[in-house]
Design a protein that fits this description.
Layout (H helix, E strand, L loop, with lengths): L1 E4 L4 H13 L4 E4 L10 H6 L7 E4 L2 E4 L1 H12 L8 H31 L5 H21 L10 H11 L12 H11 L18
Parallel strand pairs: 1-2
Antiparallel strand pairs: 1-3, 3-4
Helix pairs in contact: 1-3, 1-6, 4-5, 4-6, 5-7
The structure holds glutathione.
The site of glutathione has 13 residues, from helix 3 and helix 4.
Length: about 200
């Protein structure tokens, strides 16, 4: 499988992490966002939205990190995406948090402060904090976000939570989130990326 990727991207890291946990090999094709490679004709032919990650798996070309996680689970590891309605609905709810509070809150605060992207820092941080509170509430009573076991919902939310301190969003107040990070980091095959805060840093 080939992944159009950037090392610094938490959305790409979701896919690298999921593949590492499943023992799947990835051929990485770096896309230089700073040089605008994602807006060139060659890349737009792969992903018309001009974003990374995009996964190529045989004839399938999949963009959107949550869609890629869904593809990987359905084709390689169904236990990561339950079929039973109640559990599947829980996964969908937390995938929505990954795409909203984690991306438009935590990730945007980081992108503004670290990469100079033109997002409103305070607004992004406020949304990020709201997301961390919701996650902390859920994880205070549950080891995993959905279905009582690790699912793609955990992998979708984890990267921008663990990168939140780079957006000046300290994780120390969120004790249940810190414990959950530790559980993810203990999964066999876990890999990190640069800039992550680890559960051990929050002990
Ligand atoms: N919802 C998308 C977001 C993807 C995204 O925002 N990717 C960023 C890198 S982390 C990107 O490609 N930014 C370049 C751009 O939007 O021009 C996903 O989950 O895959």
């Amino acid at each position: 499988m080939k992944l159009y990727d950037a090392e610094i991207s938490g959305n790409c890291y979701k896919v690298r992490l999921m593949c590492a946990l499943l023992g799947l090999e990835l051929e990485l094709t770096p896309i230089n966002l700073g040089a605008g490679e994602n807006r060139g004709d060659d890349y737009l032919a792969v992903n018309p939205r001009g974003q990374i990650p995009t996964l190529v798996d045989g004839d399938a070309v999949i963009w959107e990190s949550q869609a890629i996680l869904t593809h990987l689970a359905r084709t390689r590891a169904p236990e990561w995406l339950p079929e039973e309605t109640g559990a599947l609905v829980e996964v969908m709810q937390w995938l929505a948090v990954a795409e909203n509070e984690c991306l438009y809150g935590m990730a945007r605060a980081r992108a503004a402060l670290k990469l100079g992207r033109p997002w409103d820092v305070e607004q992004s941080q406020a949304l990020g904090r709201a997301g961390l509170e919701v996650l902390d509430g859920r994880l205070a009573a549950n080891d995993w976000l959905a279905a009582g076991r690790p699912t793609i919902a955990d992998i979708a939310c984890y990267p921008y939570v663990a990168l939140a301190p780079e957006g000046d969003l300290p994780l120390a107040p969120y004790r249940a989130v810190a414990a959950w990070m530790g559980r993810i980091e203990a999964l066999p095959g876990y890999v990190a990326m640069s800039g992550l805060t680890r559960a051990a840093d929050l002990a």
